[in-house]
């Protein structure tokens, strides 16, 4: 049972990360609806991702979440040239 719960947690975290990467500015509500979990759970998964090294930030002008420079450490994005400068 614990293995199944852990697998679900990893799945939700990666699903949230992929959604933020795919749609910068996505809201907590949109993420919750997409994953069929509570907004509070989305916030916990985002915090877990941030603690694992993902540079996820809330952009007030977009009113949603985005990846710093659009780069994901867990997904393995190559660093864009403008990020390396």
Structural class: mainly alpha
Poorly predicted ranges (pLDDT <50, ≥5 residues)? none
Instruction: Please trace the helix and strand order, writing H or E for each element.
Output: HHHEEH
Report the sheet-strand fraction: 5-15%
Number of strands: 2
The average pLDDT score comes to 86
Rg (C-alpha, Å): 13 Å
- Estimated helix fraction: 40-55%
What do you see in this structure?
By secondary structure, the protein is mainly alpha-helical. Strand 1 and strand 2 form a beta hairpin. The mean pLDDT is 86. The protein is built from four helices and two strands, in the order H-H-H-E-E-H. The chain starts with a helix and ends with a helix. 15% of the residues are buried. Helix 1 crosses helix 3 and helix 2 packs across helix 3. Helices cover 54% and strands 9% of the residues. It has a two-stranded antiparallel ribbon with strand order 1-2.
């Amino acid at each position: 049972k614990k293995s199944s719960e852990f697998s679900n947690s990893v799945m939700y975290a990666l699903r949230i990360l992929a959604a933020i990467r795919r749609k910068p500015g996505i809201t907590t509500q949109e993420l919750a609806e997409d994953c069929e979990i509570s907004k509070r759970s989305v916030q916990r998964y985002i915090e877990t991702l941030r603690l694992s090294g993902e540079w996820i930030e809330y952009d007030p002008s977009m009113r949603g979440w985005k990846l710093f420079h659009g780069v994901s450490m867990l997904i393995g994005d190559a660093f864009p040239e403008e990020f390396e400068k």
